Amino acid sequence: MVLINYPYIPERITVHLGPPESPAENISLPFAEYIKNVVSSEIYPTWPESALRANIYAICSFALNRIFTEWYRSRGYDFDITSSTQYDQAFVPGRDVFENISQLADSLFNSYVVRQGSIEPLFAQFCNGSSSTCAGLSQWGTVELARAGYVPYEILQYYYGEDIDIISNVPVLPLQESWPGRPLRLGDAGNDVKQIQLWLNRIRQDYPALPAIAPADGIFRSSTEQAVRKFQEVFYMPVDGIVDEASWYRIKRSYTAVKRLAELSSEGLSPEEARLLFPGSLQLGDQGDIVQVAQYYLAVLAYFLPELPDTALDGYFGPETRAAVAAFQRLNGLPDSGVLDRSSWNRILDSYQAVLDSLPENYSAKKARIYPGYVLSEGMRGRDVRDLQQYLSRLGEYLPQLPKLRVDGIFGPETRDAVLRFQELYGLQRNGAVGPLSWNEIAMLYDSLVAA
Fold it and tell me: What pLDDT is stored for residue 3 in this prediction?
């Protein structure tokens, strides 16, 4: 399942009542109410409707660009935008909102301007056009154009170029920070890893000291760790190869800067660049490998936690899987929606790791150990790699299609080739890395053929 990480309209926006570094108050309010306030503060309700509409589109796009790029939150601030016109757009707490502006804003607040071929809200820079001028829209100039018969789209084209579109009826969702909520490190996998790989590979074009990440497939391999370490070194951060919250946002800030996403001259973010490997959440009716991965974790947890029902590993998110997710959520004090969202995913991973940590050293005896909780890939070393090699080596005695393999605890090209061959034989995703599905298939076959 492939999805696009399109921008959305936040239910609420947090405004800092002053310049960014000032000790001013923050106000959180519905996004639509924020737009009404700004429009009432920036322009006049007596202007022609086409001018009002064009300005509302620009004001919405500007604010959404700040939110999409996490311009302030990526710098450690706890707000989305300021009320300072030196940095952002005017906002006056408690001010009266004009009725015609309120009605227009209600119909337009979930719209924004984009460059054709890009998905990010345009940084729709504007100025009043009398006491100040800029490269973007002139507020007073929109009045002249409206009186000359220009419709809102033509007014926006006049200032921002012919290659713009207006996106309308955008979903309104709770605001969610991009930070995944847990550090990313060697062996992790998923959309968040893919995002970091995308960002670092683009940053590399401007900072060639960074090594290329290949393949950028959403698996945190050694190439990703090396790129993170080099980024941390170049930007004077603690060098550990782990993407914690500080590293995540420093990488995102650099990506926003090199692509100029918060400028009128933005390089643009294409739908292809915003593709997700997996859906952002799993729910009833979903299917595929990612569902089977979730089912694997839930099945293992159910073995150790009697409060959880058993789950079949069939790759289909049916009523049984939904019930298992809801039971896990209740057990962990989460809303029991039965939808596997990011917070539930993180809690499942934490719970799985807690189970691993609680197992005695000789738990598996002669049988294969359960999945170690992270993806094994080329460049890794250690006991888990040695165990994997042992399983594959013994399976090779029963399966002549598998190449011979040394058991040395080093995941090199030979181990990768053996993994690729096994994945091909058993219809698994051929990526040469061992995640929960590949490990489970290897372990079950090992137990049935060798350890029985």
Answer: 63
